[in-house]
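Case 249 in the screening queue. Each case pairs one protein sequence with one candidate compound; here the compound is magnesium ion. For every case the pipeline is the same: read the inputs, emit a complex structure as tokens, and attach any notable structural observations.

Predict complex for case 249.
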Amino acid sequence: MASLLLWQAVAAVSQTRVIAHRGFWDTPGSAQNSITALQRAQQAGVYGSELDILLTSDGVPVVNHDDVLGGMRIEDTPYGRLKDLTLPNGEPLPTLEAYLEQGKKDPSVRLVLEIKPHSTTNREDCAVLAVTGLVERLGMEAQVEYISFSLNICRKLKEFAPEAQVAYLEGNLSPDDVKRAGLDGIDYHHSLLATHPDWVARAHALGLTVNAWTVNREEDMRRLIEAGADFITTDNPLLLQKLLSEKKK
Ligand code: MG
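Case 249 output:
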């Protein structure tokens, strides 16, 4: 009972935070998962900026959402054949290292690293090792957190980086299952959270964080803020910032 009251007190003062989905890309000169999109997210002063990561065949983590780029499947292609491909804004495909170096320039913006599912668990394990190793080498452990649709990746992240915050994206596990899997949060599609209205409170009672993706409509943002979501991931960070600042007044 005491812990429930404590949670209610925390929930009453907690503030939903803004995560820019694939950076702040929906603005002139930007593109999804580009370094410019991260710069724009930094300029907008968001809490966090999300990015998608895939591993090339020779072990270089790169930042891209789709598993195929320029007709080549990223995980089957060496980095040398991918490095000159450009994003829609003309930037070359970013390596995770270049992306993190930009992130390091503004430690106030957390980086939410999504490691995409790969074709085998072995490739996924390699991706987790490469990404966590790079984060460690750059000394950025405190600035990053991780998300994945792959439960194998989430579990491996907790194995290789036990202190890291790891949230699960797939939505096929209840908060209790996610807790049992040893993870730190649920990061689910907003429509799924709408069909399970008890999950936000249950996740919080278990000590899990709650993030919702990808929330672009004002009515959905308002609903999730009211529900007490810790984070909302959006393509429209400025609208969400506006709603949150109005709520504060
Ligand atoms: Mg993503």
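Case 249 observations:
- The two ends are 32 Å apart (CA to CA).
- Confidence is low (pLDDT under 50) at residues 7-12.
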